[in-house]
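Practice set, problem 2.
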Amino acid sequence: MKLRVFAAALLAAGTLAGGWAFAQAPDLNAIPEKMPFNIPFGPAISMDRANAVIAAGVAEAKKRGWEMNIAVVDPHGDLKAFGRMDEAQLASISIAQHKARVAARYRRPSRAFEDGVQKAHLNYLMTLDDVIASRGGIPLVENGKIIGAVGCSGGTGSQDEAVCTAAAALVNK
């Protein structure tokens, strides 16, 4: 009898949770008043500033004992500067660049895509050109304009994002 009560309670909880998740699904037919992430593009970040952004990211990674790859791109998503710490994961070289490119071209942190896929179940996001649904890419905004983006990879998503946030803070004040 206890097993039946437990099973019924579990089924009820699952149904409620499933109903809540369904109720939280975004309305894809809603038309926003304003364009989301509508940050204008500006002139490209200079090489010296891009290298300073990388240095800020490396300093944060060293402080935490993490080995990272850090890429800075211009507003078009083209590589401006890159740093690979000595023991950083080799597969993360292109991932760091990809995160930065997506953050610049789509004018939003790459975490927006991760949240869209993981939390809102917007799987269509994965069909968009050049998307990476992984945190660790942040646009660099100066005077209200995107001058580039930074991408970090080599750790977990939260580690990548922490280093990336520290690096981006040099520009995003």
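Problem 2, part (b): a different protein.
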Amino acid sequence: MELEALKQLLSSLDINPDEIEDERYATAFRILFAIIEKQNEEIEFLRA
């Protein structure tokens, strides 16, 4: 799946960790989003 399609799919989920009542799940989403962001930065660096 293309990056832009993935971005749109993630946006459409409208997940806001601050609105998740179970703090374990909220923390898990924050960590997963951070991992995804870091990997994307590394991919962009390697492409350049």
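Answer key, part (b): The chain has one domain: 3-47. The chain has two helices and no strands.
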